[in-house]
Amino acid sequence: MAEDRRRTLTIALAGNPNSGKTSIFNALTGARQQVGNWPGVTVEKKVGRLTHGEYDIEIIDLPGTYSLTAYSVEERVARSFIIDEKPDVVIHVIDAANLQRNLYLTVQLLELGVDVVLDLNMWDEHLVCGAELDCDRLSTLFGAPVVPTVGHRAEGATELLEAAIKLAENRAEAHRHVPVSYGPHVDDVLSELEGELLRRPELVGDYPVRWVATKLLEGDFEIEQVMTAPPAGDDELAVLVDRCKRHIRTATGSDAEKIISEGRYGYIEGALRESLTEQKVDRMEVSRQIDNVFTSRYLGYPIFFLFVWLLFELTFRLGSYPMDWIDAFVGWLAGTLSVVLPESMLSSLIIDGVIGGVGSVIIFLPNIAILFLGIAFLEDSGYMARAAFLMDRVMHSLGLHGKSFIPMLMGFGCSVPAIMATRTLESSRDRILTILVVPFMSCSARLPVYLLIGGTFFAGRAGVVVFTVYLVGILMAFAVGRVLSKTLFRSVPSPFVMELPPYRLPTPRGLLVHTWERVRVYLKKMGGVILVASVVLWALGTFPTLPRETIDSYESDIETARASDGRSAEERAEELETELERLRVEHSFIGRTGKAIEPAMRPLGFTWEMGVSLVTGFVAKEVVVSTLGVLYHASAEEETETLSKALRAPSSGVTPLAAFAFMIFVLLYTPCIAAVAAIRREAGAGWMYFALAFQTGLAWLSAFGVYQVGRLLGLG
What we know:
This protein is α/β, with parallel strands linked by helices. Helices cover 64% and strands 7% of the residues. The chain contains 33 helices and 9 strands. It has a 7-stranded mixed sheet with strand order 2-3-4-1-5-6-8, sandwiched between helices. It has a two-stranded antiparallel sheet with strand order 7-9. β5 (89-95), α3 (99-111) and β6 form a beta-alpha-beta unit. α23 (462-486) packs across α31 (656-668) and α25 (548-563) packs antiparallel against α26. The longest helix has 41 residues, at 300-340. Mean pLDDT is 82; it is low at 634-640.
């Protein structure tokens, strides 16, 4: 048997935001990717695998970050992975047209003592600028291989991979660990600290000693906690660090952190002076001219809303055709199976539970895909950053900044991708706060409920009433955001410093990869959740079954009625069938739940049937209408007008005031189980439970207020 000679290699991709790191990751891994979250945080983790020669290679896409100072979640994740997991090679993806800013992270990687390959990405834009860079000289000065690439066209990807393998095998000619100097005052102090740390190996552990000394002088919180804070820290070391900081301040007149930062930039400037000639063309000039129109005070907002309108118009207009096809296929499949399969619990489970659950997800897939494709186009073109910039002032009233506006806007289409879109926010505080207010944006799934209730009870003013409900959702989002930012999220919002990249024409490959990444997550995570929930709901609505003698009695009466002549006999048979279905629901767990929660619904003016529809609507808001149809003597095959008549009938117990309060409740309570799963995925179980309790409680209080105040005013 031949011996397996394959070897494994772990490569980490690091880089600034907008450096093209994702395009390099896609160029190297293609579709061989897995997406999840880093342990303990909400930052997205991407892992790609490939084979090259005798190597099985795993590529880890680290979060985009400007430095490794561990101020943000992204910086902590990137730094912890490099230190703790010790990848064989770190590929630093650099925007070749912005070398000075990008190389700051390179210097910090060199401080960690890792093996680095410098990937000069967007090399085509660097060439357009007219600058000349001596890559060999830059490689010598930084002690790292340098490879030019064009990520979105996959140019240089093979050479980059080979350079990483060569470095891992210690065959890179230019490779050396460059000692970064911060000037004589800091270097002398660092030497003293290094000597002291070498006598405390139990504190230093696997950290590079010089790096630890540098971080202590910079006042890095995590390193200070490990090295100097009680109970595990060393008091003598803390005293020495404090003395060293005071010495630097006395000698230079500045804080150690500032002097070290200046030393890094000084090193970069010296290296570029020896290897780079100044660019002759400003690559941002065209973008600035476009921004004079797209971000202007008078035209910026109209242009933005035009693009948003086009995005949603295309999403629903283009998506309606494949949506109808999928809907027809699901209906055909359910109808075919209902004929082929004998009537039984198993057939009911397959048709009503499995097919109904999967169909409720797949039917919206075209809309989701088109929406994600449009968003990917806006992101890759550079316009999404401008949209966030435009809305920054408006979002400040929520204690947030402009980037939070994009997920909130998406919430009008569907809460699930909107919650997923909060990954673009750098701050954990901003991410969670945005996630908590996104569900108040009325998603399209709630619209059937608004149309039913509004058309039934407010026929002449249905449009105004539905618009009012949407407006209440927007105002509530702003009010809740402001309250939460002043209570649970009292920390200062992260400053809104968003880099405006140059406008670029997105590539078809990049758009498709980005769209597929998001669609795949939607199908995999949300489809499974809705499927399981639908099956559970089916079981709760099916069991326990009515006693056999009750069913036999009703079926006998139905057969007798059908055997009679005349329209009244047929109507009597339909009434008996509907009554039997109603009894089945009342006898089931879901019906008993409705009776159990009726005392909580009565102060809102809701009947127990309305309470049950809210429970089933937890799966998907469209289910609210179908549940009301069953409970109010209207089958799923009949027209909505039949249900409207049943709701308007005095025997229904529903008043216009209670109906409006019901719409407010549907607006404010938990959107759907898929959105709840998305909150858990993006923010964690704790915030998911908080959102459930908070949104449901707010919905109850708001509906209670509307109903009771309306009664006091004599409105119902």
